[in-house]
Design brief:
By secondary structure, this protein is mainly alpha-helical. The protein has a domain at 3-76: Domain of unknown function (DUF1846), C-terminal subdomain (Cytidine Deaminase, domain 2, 3-Layer(aba) Sandwich). The protein contains 5 helices and 2 strands; from the N terminus they run H-H-H-H-E-H-E. The protein has helices spanning 3-16, 27-40, 50-61, 65-72, 90-99, and strands at residues 81-84, 102-105. A two-stranded parallel sheet has the order 1-2. Helix 5 links the parallel strand 1 and strand 2 (102-105). Helix 1 runs parallel beside helix 3, helix 1 (3-16) packs across helix 4 (65-72) and helix 3 packs across helix 5. The longest helix has 14 residues, at 3-16.
């Protein structure tokens, strides 16, 4: 899971009063997404960005009351502030913007050579 996905999932669990040991995204859903990304779409990165994690959460909410309760708390994150020390992926940035979360970043690049020659 990307950092943005993790922070949002943990925040809504906290707001909903759901204990840490309760999983909102069951392995069968995340395994299915992993299989789609790697075996069908030939992606190398199997980590869930925020948009993908929220879609997985909404699928889980159909059968998991805790996930449904957590989803109801997403709107409470509007106007919250999030700071990243890396460049957000498009899925993370879009997801946070759609949620109404204010994002700042101060990325430290691993190299000063940002262009391939």
């Amino acid at each position: 899971m990307h950092a943005a996905s993790s922070v949002v999932i943990h925040a809504i669990k906290h707001l909903a009063g759901i204990p840490d040991k309760i999983k909102l995204l069951p392995p069968n859903i995340t395994d299915s997404i992993r299989k789609l990304k790697t075996e069908i779409l030939d992606e190398k990165n199997v980590s869930l960005d925020l948009e993908e994690a929220l879609i997985a959460l909404s699928i889980s909410a159909a059968t998991n009351p805790a996930a449904e309760l957590a989803m109801e708390k997403i709107k409470e994150l509007q106007t919250c502030e999030v700071h990243m020390t890396h460049i957000p992926t498009p899925g993370d940035e879009t997801g946070l913007r759609r949620m109404g979360v204010n994002l700042t970043s101060d990325p430290n690049f691993s190299t000063n050579d940002l262009f391939i020659t």
